[in-house]
Amino acid sequence: MKTKTITMVLEKTGTGYSAYSSKFPIFTTGGSMVELLANAYEAVKLFYEDDNLAISPDDIKFEIDFQQFFQYYRVLNSKFLAERIGMNPTLLSQYVQGHKKPSEDQKNKILAGIQQIGKELSEISLLL
């Protein structure tokens, strides 16, 4: 028997990272993002252990706010991203700094741009 997708919110903390579900009493921490993702998987498995549900990493989806995203992935410049997706760089900067909240359409546009850049990067081979 499978469970539905569990969404966990990621946050940067003073000692590393944390993740929690706003719908279920599931939370965890980690010193690095890699450790946090592994711990989140274990926390979800433990939550459903008594229900004998099959849990896979694909059952967990992670959310992160713009500010936290750009703090963690500093390699991605918000001005570059704005130009890439045809958005005003000042507006994206206001989203990143938390001064404004993007509409659902703007959020989807930003996410699609980030995912496209990630796809392009994952397909690159470097010549040595």
What would you note in describing this structure?
With 128 residues, this protein is of the alpha+beta class. The chain folds into 2 domains: 6-63; 66-122, no CATH class. Helices cover 45% and strands 15% of the residues. It has 5 helices and 4 strands, in the order E-E-E-H-E-H-H-H-H. Strands 3-2-1-4 form a 4-stranded mixed sheet, covered by helices on one side. Helix 3 (78-85) crosses helix 4 and helix 3 (78-85) crosses helix 5 (104-122). The longest helix has 19 residues, at 104-122. It starts with 5 loop residues before the first strand and ends in a 6-residue tail after the last helix. The model has no long low-confidence stretch (mean pLDDT 89).
> Strand content of the residues, in percent?
5-15%
State the shape. globular
Number of helices, where a helix is a run of at least 4 consecutive DSSP H or I residues: 5
Instruction: Give the % helix.
Output: 40-55%
String of helices and strands = EEEHEHHHH
Broad structural category: alpha+beta
Strand order of the largest sheet: 3-2-1-4
The largest sheet, given as strand count, sense and whether it forms a barrel, is: 4 strands, mixed
- Give the distance, in angstroms, between the N- and C-terminal Cα atoms: 48 Å
Counting structural domains, the number is 2
Please, what is the average pLDDT?
89
Quaternary:
single chain
Q: Rg from C-alpha positions?
A: 17 Å
Low-pLDDT residue spans: none
The total beta strand count reads 4
